[in-house]
Amino acid sequence: MVRFAARVAGWVSVFMIAVPWINPDGRAQTLPIDCLSFQMEWDYHFDTGWKVANPSGPSDFVSVDINATRNGQQILGICGAFFEAQPGGQIGELLIAPDNLALDPSGATPDPSRAVTRVVHPIGLPGIFCEDLIAFDVPDVTLDSSGHHVVMKMEPGDSSVWVGADTDYSYRHSWYSADGFATKGKLFSGNFLLGTVTGPVTPGTLWARGSSTIDLNETEELCFIFLGERTLQPFMLFVTNCKKQLKAPAAPFVWFTGTNPIDDAGHSQLFELVWPCDFFTGGFCLAAVYLALNGQINVSNHLSVNVSTHPSCYPQCWGQRDDGLQDGSIWKVQNPSGSGDWFNVHHGSPPSFVHTLTSVEIGTWNFCGQSASFAEVGLYDNDSALDPCGFTPMLPALAADTLTQVPGGQMQWGYPATVYDCPDLIASPSIDYHASVRHLPLGFLG
User: Fold this and answer.
1) What is the mean pLDDT of the chain?
2) Three-state SS for 13?
3) In the chain, count of helices (H) and strands (E)?
4) Beta-strand (E) ranges in 228-314?
5) Does 1 map to a domain?
6) Structural domain tally of the chain?
7) Domain check: are 103 and 245 in the same one?
8) Are 264 and 77 in contact (CB under 8 A)?
9) pLDDT over 90 for what percent of the chain?
10) Cβ count near 233 (within 10 Å)
């Protein structure tokens, strides 16, 4: 039973939150989909691209009636699927507008002149046919109790950009107009692929994919959103033990929520979050520590991150070649040990998510009545010159522990086991690693 302890490199992207503010001249970037919660009005299926006219007229609009389904929710962006026939096309505007009940008491026609949030010429079209949803940043807004529409204005004269459409069946939520909805909207025979991107409503909320709990594979990026109490909101991200106890800063710097109306993506930042192998088992929590409006230091909710381990990891450790359980027999080269007795596990080169090699963990038995130690436990390169098959480590050690004492009478049947703390090594994909142990002469550890 031998395995490496390693620091595994996780990634966290931060996307700041803006305050509600209509900015008709703003240019929105696309939002990364990993941290977002999409809400659509249909079973998503991209059948075709659609335009009111080709090229687009001066007042060509399409809309999706979301009724009151988003009331009370924080809207971070507008999402959609688009067909761009050739690079260089533009969307005229994306906006959320209330029902124009004076014109159309049925609520099927929006009033773009009273948009609660909008963006002009959003940036981020794929330049190709794209079935996947794209999320565009808009000034954040919490919708009131009235009915609303997600609206797209076609860029006048454009022949490139087509809105995605599902034409299999009509849910009677999609409408279009060639006069800017100055008259009642016309019912589309299918469903336009336009929807909303939602976020937290309560200030001081840390959120990922629409929840305070997220499941990740070790190699995935973690993308979260923090909603502060004010436009310029300083905060720091901390790793916690999930029990309201802060353990360590996740990153040694302070962020701010945005100072511009459109900044969910504009103020994004990517950093590497590194945690030791024995820091948690299966997951961890994050919390934002921020300066509240009353001048006090507050702590957000805890975002629980459940990490599913890579097949070669157990848990969060790289290099385990066994099943983690003692099968009933204790092994030594000979008993008592000789001066040249070694045992070794060949682990190979680490995968890309392993950042630092920190120690070797061994299920160790001590048959003495007092504490004892191995002569050396360490990390070694492969001696390919001596053994081209790769079964032999190269001496001396890259890093080794010679001090760890094992208590008398210790018997370990599985992990966690005794950790032999070597000097940390930056993991290298070019090194073929071994974990090796040298016995003391006349030693009694197994």
Assistant:
1) 76
2) strand
3) 0, 31
4) 234-240, 246-249, 255-256, 269-275, 283-291, 297-299, 303-308
5) no
6) 3
7) no
8) yes
9) 19
10) 24
Sign of dihedral through CA atoms 378, 382, 383, 389? positive
pLDDT digits (tens, 9 = 90+) for 338-358: 878 888 888 888 776 577 787
Q: What is the pLDDT of residues 162-212, one digit of tens each?
A: 999 988 877 789 999 999 999 999 999 999 999 998 877 788 888 877 778
149 and 84 share one domain: yes
C-alpha–C-alpha distance, residues 162 and 176, integer Å: 13
Amino acid at 113: S
Q: Is 70 helix (H, G, I), strand (E, B) or coil?
A: coil
- Global pTM value: 0.58
The token pair that represents 232 in the structure block: 């310029």
Domain boundary among 280, 308, 336: 308
Asked if 422 and 377 touch (Cβ cutoff 8 Å), the reply is yes
Q: Which domain holds residue 292?
A: 7-16+201-308
d(CA 275, CA 212): 20
What are 405's two structure tokens? Answer: 């004492």
3 state DSSP class of 225? strand
Between CA 287 and CA 162 the distance in angstroms is 41
Q: Are strands 2-15 and 221-227 parallel, antiparallel or unpaired?
A: parallel
- 426 assigned to some structural domain: yes
- Domain end marker among 199, 220, 254: 199
Whether residues 403 and 361 fall in one domain: yes
Structure tokens at 120: 């002009």
